[in-house]
């Protein structure tokens, strides 16, 4: 009997490799917190917030319990709620619309660009018109820095100014990227990011932060994250939530932030190598001039109807893939009752059928990447 050994499975995101690089530094940082017993809003939280704000070039970083809460904080701080409309792309993770619904407002969906997969600024005007026709007051827009690449923040800011919209940049996947050679963080009124472990800058659990240059907004978000506290924690001046970044997670992130720039460079090198090797067989990602990506995902497009066979072929060779996102928000059970702006979401519909992501992380060595590239090329030609 001829038994053929199964090929070893490649990690989609290799957190263990990063762990090996960091060595004992995180162990020592965590033990320091454990010994101090300052588990909630300890000194490491303030230290990390200061370092994060410096990295992003903003005045304030307000840490919190998750990337989702980082979106809720500014919505609550600005009093956005029932009767208000918030514009967001349909092709994104559900949290972008979820937070709007959580505060009682109405998400209005717009389409994305077929090349960058990010919000199409030209559709904002139509979404505003749709909201007004439904008797809603357009209050905010949430562009997403999808897959690690900055949204079109210039045109989005111009449209937001024209319609008096509050801008919340959802940088859960894109923190560390640049737009017009400036790091994400200071675009819009506030930037929200996530430290979920699989993110380019991730902790060892859940965590997030909201960054802003607005002193008053920063104070309001700090209040919201601790039950709407006023001058005293028992003086609750607004409806808030409990959303603090654990001190242990802050300690982890301080160590990870030290190597983050180097990891961004590594991700860019790996993505460039993917592009050079695959652009003749699949549609590879495009980063416009003046921008950079942190490559939270490396996402390609295949011809219609080819994705399932492609994924199966790679799986047979021990290579995982992922689909971000197979169902756009306007068709999801929990979100399909919300309106689509004028202009429709045709691109989102197409992308949901064609995109697929390959393994991507800062520690993907060239022999392993070559194995992935060879498998992709075989799978495309076989299909």
UniProtKB/TrEMBL annotation:
One of its GO terms (biological process) is polysaccharide biosynthetic process. SUPFAM superfamilies: PLP-dependent transferases. GO terms for molecular function: pyridoxal phosphate binding; transaminase activity. Keywords: Aminotransferase, Pyridoxal phosphate, Transferase. CDD domains: AHBA_syn (cd00616). The modification N6-(pyridoxal phosphate)lysine is found at residue 199. The active site is at 199 (proton acceptor). InterPro entries: DegT/StrS_aminotransferase (IPR000653), PyrdxlP-dep_Trfase (IPR015424), PyrdxlP-dep_Trfase_major (IPR015421), PyrdxlP-dep_Trfase_small (IPR015422). Gene3D superfamilies: Aspartate Aminotransferase, domain 1 (3.90.1150.10), Type I PLP-dependent aspartate aminotransferase-like (Major domain) (3.40.640.10). This is DegT/DnrJ/EryC1/StrS family aminotransferase.
């Amino acid at each position: 009997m001829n038994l053929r050994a199964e090929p070893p499975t490649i990690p989609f995101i290799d957190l263990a490799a990063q762990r090996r690089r960091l060595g004992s530094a995180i162990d020592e940082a965590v033990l320091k917190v454990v010994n101090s017993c300052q588990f909630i809003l300890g000194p490491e939280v303030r230290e990390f917030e200061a370092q994060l704000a410096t990295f992003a070039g903003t005045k304030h970083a307000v840490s919190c319990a998750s990337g989702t809460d980082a979106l809720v904080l500014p919505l609550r701080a600005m009093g956005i709620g029932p009767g208000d409309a918030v514009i967001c792309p349909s092709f994104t993770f559900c949290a972008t619309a979820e937070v709007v619904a959580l505060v009682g407002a109405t998400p209005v969906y717009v389409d994305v660009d077929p090349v960058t997969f990010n919000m199409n600024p030209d559709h904002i005007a139509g979404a505003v018109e749709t909201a007004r026709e439904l008797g809603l007051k357009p209050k905010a827009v949430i562009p997403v820095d999808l897959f690690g690449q900055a949204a079109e923040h210039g045109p989005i800011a111009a449209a937001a100014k024209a319609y008096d919209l509050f801008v919340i940049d959802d940088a859960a996947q894109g923190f560390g990227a640049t737009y017009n050679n400036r790091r994400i963080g200071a675009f819009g009124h506030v930037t929200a990011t996530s430290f979920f472990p699989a993110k380019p800058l991730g902790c060892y659990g859940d965590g997030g932060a909201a960054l802003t240059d607005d002193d008053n907004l920063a104070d309001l978000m700090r209040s919201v994250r601790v039950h709407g506290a006023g001058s005293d924690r028992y003086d609750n001046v607004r409806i808030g939530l409990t959303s603090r970044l654990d001190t242990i997670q802050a300690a982890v992130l301080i160590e990870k932030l030290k190597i983050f720039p180097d990891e961004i460079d590594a991700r860019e090198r790996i993505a460039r190598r993917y592009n050079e090797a695959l652009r003749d067989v699949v549609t590879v990602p495009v980063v416009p001039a003046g921008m950079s990506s942190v490559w939270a995902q490396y996402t390609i497009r295949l011809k219609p109807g080819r994705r399932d066979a492609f994924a199966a072929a790679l799986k047979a060779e021990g290579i995982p893939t992922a689909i971000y996102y197979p169902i756009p928000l306007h068709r999801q059970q929990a979100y399909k009752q919300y309106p689509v702006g004028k202009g429709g979401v045709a691109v989102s519909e197409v992308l949901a059928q064609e995109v697929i992501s390959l393994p991507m992380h800062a520690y993907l060595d060239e022999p392993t990447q070559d194995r992935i590239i060879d498998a992709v090329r075989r799978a495309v030609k076989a299909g």
